[in-house]
Amino acid sequence: MAATLTEKTITGAKPKAKPYEILDRDGKESVRELVLRIQPSGAKNYYVQIARGKREKIGSASAYTLAKARIKAKLILGEAAGGHDFKAARRQKKVINATTLESYLDGPFKEYAEASIAGHRQMLAGLKKNFSFLMPKSMTEITELDLAKWRRKRSDVSLATQRRELTNLKSVLNHAVKNKAIPGHQVAYYRVKGTLTDIEITRKVRYLTGAEEMRLRASLDAREARQRQERASGNRWRAERGHAMHPEIGPLQFADHVKPIILLALNTGLRRGDLFGLKWEHIDLGRRQISKVIEKTSHSQRKAGRKPEAALLPLSAEAHAILTQCEKQKHPTSQYVFTSPRSGGRLDNISKAFHGVISAAKIEDFRFHDLRHTFASRLVMAGVDINTVRELMAHSEIKMTLVYAHLSPDHKAAALDRAFGGVP
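-> structure tokens emitted (424 positions)
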């Protein structure tokens, strides 16, 4: 006798190699059109047969009890009898959802950004964070009053930051108009204007002092020692119980990716995204160099109609030693230098570990990006000319590098001395 739907058969239904179904034939409470479909993955979903060859999904068995599924099935059958077009309703719902800021951001714009915008991850995350209250709204209903509310919330950041955030929002709305997802939007002419009461917040170039760098390195070493000790302790526990052992961490090995990625940022000035995207094909240890298309620079090159070119970055002695050790420990199948321990693919976040190391080192007001500032600052204060610093930083324009020029107050006087001779 074929199984019929009961709470017991639903709970006991096990996945098989192919999908199969259980019909509702259990007494007078049953709805003959109700079906439970079990997938090989173990997923169990209710469907209701509304016509020959036509079904409507009710939902997961984890969300619906059998009694509720029967009630829902009867409602759907009643709508079908009244001529309701479920397919047309789904299309309409899809159109409505696609016009909300969040749905468009997660759908068409995300697809576009991944292909065209170098810093798309940070951009999308920033939009969701800074305009969170606008996410459920239709893009056509976002008004200048909404943006005035946003400005009040963001009054603690600089005008430049506010303008950048507004530009990002408008790029989403304009993309939706261009792709005919919406006919237009109401904030095309909204501008972030400075007033006499605005305080222009400028962040100074933050870089590690010599003492801070020593504390950072000591903090990294302490973290490594702690992980070695924990691994050894864990293996002793496993050995006592006959469990499989984890590989020991050798004295010259890195415990994980945190120390090498931080020190490599300090030695190369590469941005976090470029370090996450660093592949072994980009590295030539024999020539002591990295050859990689820089994500942010490639975006400006594409906008200018040029093919992105790889930046050629020499490796310092420490950077070379770090990558040499990383090669010895590299993942057997991943192409990335720094591999995600969860997915085995590209690493995407080290924030928690980084902040832990910085906190332990008692370093305040310091971001991962400030390692890049430290790299540039060291070069400038060592007397390296500003154009060479630009090349090593892979800046597309010299004006981006000039923010570090003030760190070498003697360079102008030195230039005059070279040109006209020093003071007699």
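The longest strand covers residues 44-51.
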